Amino acid sequence: MMKQYSIVWAAVLLCMACGTASAQTQRPQRPVKNPPQYPHIIDLENKAPKQDPAKDKPAEPEEPAPVLSVELIRSIDALAGEVRQLVLEMRALNVRQQAQIDMLRLTRGDLRIDSYERDLKIVTDRLAQLEMDEQSLKAAMTPEALLTAVSRFGTLNRDETMQQIRRDYETRLRMIEGEKERLQQRESELRRIIGGFRENNEETEQKIKLVEEALRRLTSPAPDRKP
User: Fold this and answer.
1) Contacts with 45 (C-beta within 8 Å, 6 or more apart), sequence order
2) DSSP assignment of 40-107, as one string?
3) Alpha-carbon distance 180 to 131, whole Å?
4) pLDDT (tens digit, 9 = 90+) per residue, 83-127?
5) How far apart, in whole angstroms, are the C-alpha atoms of residue 178 and residue 185?
6) I need a surface site. Which of 21, 64, 136, 168 has the fewest CB within 10 A?
7) Residue 55: CB partners within 8 Å, gap ≥ 6?
8) Cβ of 204: how many Cβ atoms within 10 Å?
């Protein structure tokens, strides 16, 4: 009897256990409000696959080549033209300054030539006068001219008077010859100086012509370029 009671009680407990397990199986589980994130944050076993940053980084698009607009090209061309015009103006200014310097040099050369030519005229006039005086003295020193000169003087010793007049003429002639020699040297020097200035002026005039031609080329309008 006791054995049967134990068997029945065991069967009842078994039925109760099966019912409890079935109830737990059929009851829905509630979702966890804040599930733990540490399995995804900390990889203790280093099992997460390594990612290549170069592969994850999006490829940058290639920049297209810059395209110059028509307005920008025109602006560049206009600026280049202004620069060329400025360069030409600077060259023309330098050429004008050089022409002014050459003109001033030419003017000064002409003034110096005029001054030396005036001095030369004085020298040549004096030389001409001395030449005439020399010819007159030489003519007066002839025997006939000396006799005529002595006859104008009332003298007792005609020969001595003739010798005295002759000595006076010779002294004057030596003075004329000495002055002539100095003036001839001065004349030669003046002619040499004037010749040098004239050569310089001729070279300067040639340079001025070249400068004027260069200035004409720089200031002349450039021909239109065909597109």
Assistant:
1) none
2) HH--TT--SPP--HHHHSPPPPPPPPP---HHHHHHHHHHHHHHHHHHHHHHHHHHHHHHHHHHHHHH
3) 8
4) 877 887 788 788 788 888 888 988 999 999 999 999 999 999 999
5) 11
6) 64
7) none
8) 19
